[in-house]
Amino acid sequence: MMIDNDLDLLEKYSRENSEEAFAELVSRHVDLVYSAAMRQVRSRQLAEEVAQSVFTDLSTGAQKLKPGTILTAWLYQVTRRAAIDVVRRESRRQFREQIALTMADMNSNATDWTRVESLLDEAMETLAEPDRTAILLRYFDNKTLREVGQTLGTSEDAAQKRVSRAVEHLRGFLSKRGTTVGSASLVMLLSTYAVQSAPIGLGCTISTTVLSGAALHQAATIGITKAILMTTIQKTLIAATLAVAVGTGIYEASRASGLQGQIQKVQERQQPLAAEILQLRQEQNEATARLEAAKQESEQLRREMAEVPRLRGEVARLRAAARDLAQSSADSQAAAADSGLETAFKTWAMRANQLKKRLEQMPDKRIPEFQFLTEKDWFDAVKNMPRLETDADFREALSQLRGGAKSGFDHVAQEALRAFTKANDGLLPADFSQLKPYFQTPVDDTVLSRYTLLQTGKVGDVPKGEYLVAETAPPVDDEYDTVHRFGLNDVTTSSVNHTEDAIKQAGIQFAEANNGLLPTDPSQLAPYLKQPVDTAKVQKLLSQIPPGVTTLDQLKAMGNKLND
Asked: Model-level pTM?
């Protein structure tokens, strides 16, 4: 029978030396410990060693934990300290270069999560202990707000306020470090990525190693100094030391039949665990083979599509996060019914998949700025579409996608522009390509060639309201796309819709022929249109005329007032 409470399991392990209780604790928390270690050391091998060290500390110090200790918080802090020790001790030049190359590769494919991940544990350290514990329980351990409140000894409402306050603190810390992310996005990232699955078999390996080490210690009474970080030479020496220690234990055990019996029992318990590890390794090899087969498809498509199954599997967690956000954010929409929200997520994922497949068939609809797309941009392109069936539907969705990609570039270009003017005493570049060294992540020349500078000289001399950069590349779809312009802090877009321009021109001609009156019905514009236009598009544009505005002069006056 499984014991639900962590402290009950610790007590049973301390009192009865129960291997089942300890193995259950490892199974529950190995993902959290491995993920926290991986963010610090950036090496799978070192992260596994840190995880084994943390659970070894737990096995030897279980009796010393204070009553009421929250095990999740204790493990997180011990993991952070152990990982810091690993980073400090690993000073060999060759390994530092390996970490630098790994991090550079990760940064070259930066997403919202990779930008948050590098600062997460440092941000967590700035939280007060109760706030940090609340975040760990809520988003790392996936507890409900009621369970968080019960663990902290407070009400559900108080727990919700503490979690919201802690999220805002983390968001503020990230913003000061140059990573801007909304509260809703941060909660979704924490819920989805903060705790990743540890390597297959790691928990079983840790349980076997820790428990076997404890049994051999009792049998041979030999203290073996634990090593968290080992170079190749150190591992060889310690392996030799362990061999001598075990050999000595067997020699002594041969002289004491009681100790020999204990060692035999340990070996018997290891046999089923070894078989389980072997089976898990076989499953891992099969999974690796399937993954290699999938790599035959486009690498970019593989990375994007990998998130769709994850979203399907995380619907329940995202649903809970959405409900909490709806309660804590004044500007969020009312929380949707569980079934409705789940249906929405599935619909968006399906449409995003449809859009990706359509785009693969139409490579001419891509633009170089697609390198700045995130999964959120794919969802934004389709989530407001009533359907995704006709060519017009796909054209509109692809236009939204291109707009999102260009907006992503606009923001990084603004950062580069601000960095250039700061480094050059307020002077603007003479050519847009001069910004290339100031981008935080590399930008292709094909992207830079699509934009031009509108102003030169001192940035302080630029008239207020004037833009500094404009997109000059021709639109992919001149009926749906928009042109982007931006300054140091603001971005604007304007339509390049030729059909819309034709309708507006026909409306002006109608007003001039009818004493300034604006048309109210698509049939009134038919004689003035120079090309056939879908009646629904004409009606859509006419519906945008503000109520009470009936003449062209009123419409122009309103436009001038808005411009002022």
From this structure: 0.35
Which pLDDT belongs to residue 243?
A: 40
Which residues is 495 bridged to in the sheet? 482
Q: Which residues pair with 451 in a beta bridge?
A: 471
Going by C-beta distance under 8 Å and a sequence separation of 6 or more, which residues neighbour residue 436? 443, 445, 448
Q: Are strands 491-495 and 451-453 parallel, antiparallel or unpaired?
A: unpaired
Beta strands 451-453 and 482-486, pairing class: unpaired
- Give the mean pLDDT of the chain: 80
How many helices and strands (H and E) does the chain possess? 24, 4
pLDDT tens string 500-555: 778 888 999 999 999 999 999 999 999 999 878 888 888 988 888 998 899 989 88
Of 58, 126, 127, 52, the closest CA to residue 86 belongs to 52
> Which residue in this structure is represented by tokens 């306050």?
165
* Beta carbons of 193 and 331 less than 8 angstroms apart: no
Q: What is the 3-state secondary structure (H, E, C) of 50-90?
A: HHHHHHHHHHHHHHHCCCCCCHHHHHHHHHHHHHHHHHHHC
- Name the DSSP letter for residue 551: B
Q: Is residue 98 within 8 Å of residue 136, measured between CB atoms?
A: no
Residue length, the chain? 564
Tokens 């292709």 belong to 444
Q: How confident is the model at residue 255 (pLDDT cuts 50, 70, 90)?
A: very low
3-state secondary structure of 366: coil
CB 349 within 8 A of CB 185: no
- Angstrom distance (rounded) from CA 201 to CA 214: 20
Contacts of 283-290 spanning 24+ positions with Cβ under 8 A: 283/200, 284/199, 284/200, 284/201
Amino acid at 365: K
Three-state DSSP at 517 gives strand
How is 439-504 classified by DSSP, letter by letter? -SS---HHHHTTEEES--SBGGGSPTT--SEEE-SPPSSTTT-EEEEE-SS-EEEEE--HHHHHHH
